[in-house]
Design goal:
This protein is α/β, with parallel strands linked by helices. The protein is built from 16 helices and 14 strands. The protein folds into two domains: 171 residues, Aspartate Aminotransferase, domain 1, CATH 3.90.1150; 251 residues, Aspartate Aminotransferase, domain 2, CATH 3.40.640. Helix 14 packs across helix 16. The structure holds ligand F0G.
């Protein structure tokens, strides 16, 4: 069958608000052209992020009612811990309030001045947490990842040769961990192959360096492995997921993605001493070990979400519906990062508005234009997000249309494609922007712009 069927039906609905073009113009001006500063009620279709925006199932909501809210030793914690141990094979499971809390604890313990942390592509908070510890984050994507048109099946792979070279150059003692982000969010939501993860493991073994996964979207990554990697098609997603985690020494996870919850995170560790130190930090800043800054109900929702995300009918629908948007854009002549990613479509803003140089933020111009034309909210992943603080401009200027899990239907997506095509037809009218106010770090969240 051609039709992508949502493997669920809708029990609760939430209204979304139409706005007029005049209202949207006012909203844009007031927000300084930064869509993070726009109120959600002024957005019609919100593709800002797939993080914490998913719709929970009736089972998750039922779990919320059944949750144990005890301070210490809550039954909900043990259910969550068992579920994570079963899925990932890790012995030590720490709950945190979200992914960046896991990152902050990890890098406070293993980072520090003089250290270098390689990754296929750090996401913004990971990069910021590595830097905050005093260490230097280094992105080592494969060459194919820098070309939006290249249809390499595993564009998320880390470049094993440059990884080896980097370790040789700085010395293994300065590399506290190699990290691989699955799927690589800042490079197009592209997957990492098992073969590549095995390659990283071998390099880490040779140099005695721990290997960590940033595993926010581990289930989507495993589905791509099943679909695309030689010899993996007959394995279950669970089995592939288990092998991915078996290759690593630890993982940070934002449960707001493949955990399909609105808040939550996980830190997974094998090493007993590191676990002890992480536990101490967790108690200091997040909360006691059996809740880590969350309520018992959040732990229940996570335990169920991590199970539901591994269902293959769900993953088939999920990955195909993201590709559905990508294919519509490509058919309209819009250049995207190919092949379509798992959780998002990334529009190539350099190709969309070649008349706007990177220094005038072509991605932000597309983001503002898309909101203006259709009330759709997207996010820039380019010179605004990664260009501040003296950093060199990134290789690509992208606009991410992130797909919340189980939230929007096909007609919502058709509308987004229509708005994008309409904007593309009028792309000559898009104008570059100039930053008028920015914070010292993570400027994309709060910077204000003016149209040139
Ligand atoms: N790692 C990756 C790859 C991410 O995409 C994110 C969050 C994090 C870590 C941090 O997790 O938000 O729970 O603290 N990405 C969101 C996004 C915000 O929009 O892509 P968090």
């Amino acid at each position: 069958m051609k039709t992508i069927i949502e493997p669920f039906k809708i029990k609760v609905v939430e209204p979304i608000h139409m706005t007029t073009p005049e209202q949207r113009e006012g909203v844009l001006q007031e927000a300084g052209f930064n869509l993070f500063l726009v109120k959600a009620r002024d957005v019609l279709i919100d593709l800002l992020t797939d993080s914490g925006t998913g719709a929970m199932s009736s089972e998750q909501w039922a779990g919320i009612m059944r949750a144990d809210e005890s301070y210490a030793g809550a039954e909900s914690f043990y259910r969550f811990e068992r579920q994570m141990q079963e899925i990932t094979g890790f012995t030590h499971v720490l709950p945190t309030h979200q992914g960046r809390a896991s990152e902050r604890i990890l890098f406070e313990l293993i980072g520090g001045a003089g250290k270098v942390v390689p990754n296929n592509a750090h996401f913004d908070t990971t990069r910021a947490n590595v830097e905050h510890s005093g260490a230097e984050p280094v992105d080592l994507p494969i060459d194919e990842a820098k070309d939006p048109k290249n249809r390499h099946p595993f564009k998320g792979n880390i470049n094993l040769q440059t990884l080896e070279d980097l370790i040789g150059r700085v010395g293994a003692d300065r590399v506290p961990a190699v990290m691989v982000t699955v799927t690589n969010n800042s490079g197009g939501g592209q997957p990492v192959s098992l073969e590549n993860l095995r390659g990283v493991r071998a390099i880490c073994d040779r140099h005695g360096i721990p290997f960590f996964l940033d595993a926010c979207r581990f289930a989507e990554n495993a589905w791509f492995i099943k679909m695309r990697e030689e010899g993996q098609g007959d394995r279950s997603v669970r089995d592939i997921v288990r092998e991915m985690f078996d290759l690593a020494d630890g993982a940070t996870i934002s449960a707001k993605k493949d955990g399909i919850v609105n808040i939550g995170g996980v830190l997974l560790l094998r090493d007993d001493a590191l676990f002890q130190n992480a536990t101490n930090l967790l108690i200091l800043t997040e909360g006691y070990v059996t809740y880590g800054g969350l309520a018992g109900r959040d732990l229940e929702a996570m335990a169920r979400g991590f199970e539901e995300v591994l269902r293959e009918d769900y993953l088939d629908y999920r990955i195909r519906s993201t590709a559905y948007l990508g294919n519509q854009l490509t058919e309209a002549g819009i250049a995207i990062v190919e092949p379509p990613g798992g959780h998002a479509i990334y529009v190539d803003a350099k190709a969309f508005c070649p008349h706007i140089p990177p220094a005038e933020f072509p991605g932000q111009a597309v983001v503002a234009g898309l909101y203006r034309i259709g009330g759709v909210r997207a996010v820039e992943i380019g010179s605004v997000m990664f260009g501040g603080g003296g950093h060199a401009p990134p290789a690509m200027e992208l606009v991410r249309l992130a797909m919340p899990r189980r939230v929007y239907t096909q007609s919502h997506i058709d509308y987004v494609a229509e708005a994008m095509s309409e904007l593309h037809a009028r792309r000559d009218t898009l104008r570059g922007l100039r930053i008028v106010d920015e914070p010292p770090a993570l400027r994309h969240f709060t910077a204000r712009f003016e149209e040139l």
